[in-house]
């Protein structure tokens, strides 16, 4: 990375982001009036319009000093848009009676895929700017270019997520609000091609793995509440010529529910396919999340847990532990966002429920360099 390439990157981001935002503004304008005026949706429209105007008027970047100012501008816009995911989910949940399931899910997919694409462009440029003058590709442990890690160790990412999840509070409640006995968290056995390394965006991969393992651990605890020992979860890694696969198998009882007809309905934002979208507790949690914002990262997930631990020990000033650990209300975004992250570069996420026994999750991710981002303009 040199000055000329960095300036070129800045101007590409500067001109590309308003184009992608403009398409989503047109999507919002095409919604029925009763939907676009819903709580949450109107807020997102205002955020997008404001960002479009800011980018449209931003002058060309010609020097490193101007790029530094542009990076600060990018960071401020990213922070402003943190409420977009929960606000959209809240607004579309409330609007679900006014849209068909296919229309609602297609709209949400376009909005979320576009949001991911914009964050990838912005965060990649920010990372490139920080690495100017260094050769991060030759980093001995984590070679990377911007936010893309060229030799991402899948086993290490799984182990990292397991360690974070084992450090969370053990107190959970079942679907009717009763406390589940504390038996700790199940072990995760990793097998298969455990030395697999491939090119990918680490933040995306670890968010997906974290969510899938979190669901598997919670289901196993709930299904074996009366057992003294929890059965292990198995994560199997398989590498192909152009893609990498992970199967996560648990004994959590499966996904059978009177409110969910098919496992794939868990990816839906429609109350017709996923009745839990209209639960008062979930809507309340989304309102709360909208006020603070959601960026869909692992660090954001563990922050409330570690905050609770830090409050217990006020002398603990470790910045990592300040990001701390406490239960947070379920807002129903983990699986849908994992599916969006997976399919962004052409991957697949499939849930197979063995009702009465457990669930197998099949994750397939292409090695970066083989697929284009899947954006619908």
UniProtKB/TrEMBL annotation:
Domain Branched-chain alpha-ketoacid dehydrogenase kinase/Pyruvate dehydrogenase kinase N-terminal: 3-148
EC class: transferase
Ranges for region Disordered: 306-329
Domain Histidine kinase/HSP90-like ATPase: from-to ranges: 203-367
Molecular function terms, GO-annotated: ATP binding; pyruvate dehydrogenase (acetyl-transferring) kinase activity
Keyword hit for Nucleotide-binding: yes
Keywords in alphabetical order: ATP-binding, Kinase, Mitochondrion, Nucleotide-binding, Transferase
GO biological process: regulation of glucose metabolic process
Known EC number: 2.7.11.-
Entry-linked Pfam families: BCDHK_Adom3 (PF10436), HATPase_c (PF02518)
InterPro entries with a match to the protein in the record: AK/P_DHK_N_sf, BCDHK/PDK_N, BCKD/PDK, HATPase_C_sf, HATPase_dom
CC annotations in GO: mitochondrial matrix
Subcellular location: Mitochondrion matrix
Name of the protein this chain belongs to: Protein-serine/threonine kinase
